[in-house]
Amino acid sequence: MVTAIVLINAKRDKIPETTQALVKLEGITEVYSVAGSYDIVAIIRVKENDALAELVTKKMLKLDGIEKTTTLIAFEVFSKFDLERMFSLGLEK
Q1: CA–CA dist 27, 79 (Å, integer)
Q2: What is residue 88's predicted lDDT score, i.e. its pLDDT?
Q3: What local confidence, expressed as pLDDT, does residue 81 receive?
Q4: In this predicted model, what pLDDT tens digit does every residue of 35-63 receive, in sequence order?
Q5: pTM, whole model, 2 decimals?
Q6: Dmax of the chain from CA atoms?
Q7: Do 77 and 5 touch, CB atoms closer than 8 A?
Q8: Which residues share a beta bridge with 3?
Q9: Would you say domain 2-88 falls under CATH 3.40.190.290?
Q10: Quick one: which of 49, 52, 63, 50 has its CA closest to 8?
């Protein structure tokens, strides 16, 4: 599984609509409205890098409210929870 954290700069008046559009995209498991240098953080969990590239460069960037993104790809995960098992359900496609 590939996990990525996408830091998003959004149009200020489009943040609510953008967060709602993002959470509907397959592969995005969580969306946070945040304070600071970025407006939105999206957590992506997909089966392979090609799916990540498709989601970020073709689907997310077509959303009107997104101005700029920075994508961080996770190498390892450290958690109290078995995230691999939790998020692999339904990825057998």
Answers
A1: 20
A2: 58
A3: 65
A4: 999 999 999 999 999 999 999 999 998 99
A5: 0.83
A6: 38
A7: no
A8: 45
A9: no
A10: 63
Contacts of 26 (CB under 8 A, 6+ apart): 55
Mean pLDDT of 20-42: 97
What spatial distance separates the first Cα and last Cα of the chain, rounded to whole Å? 13
DSSP characters for the chain?
-EEEEEEEEE-GGGHHHHHHHHHTSTTEEEEEE--SS-SEEEEEEESSHHHHHHIIIIIGGGSTTEEEEEEEE-S----SS-HHHHHHTT---
Say if residue 89's pLDDT is above 70.
no
The residue that leads in pLDDT, 89 or 39, is 39
Pick the closest to residue 87 from 57, 50, 45 (CA basis): 45
Q: Give the torsion through C-alpha atoms of 58, 63, 66, 72, to 10 deg.
A: -40
Using only the alpha carbons of the chain, give its radius of gyration: 13
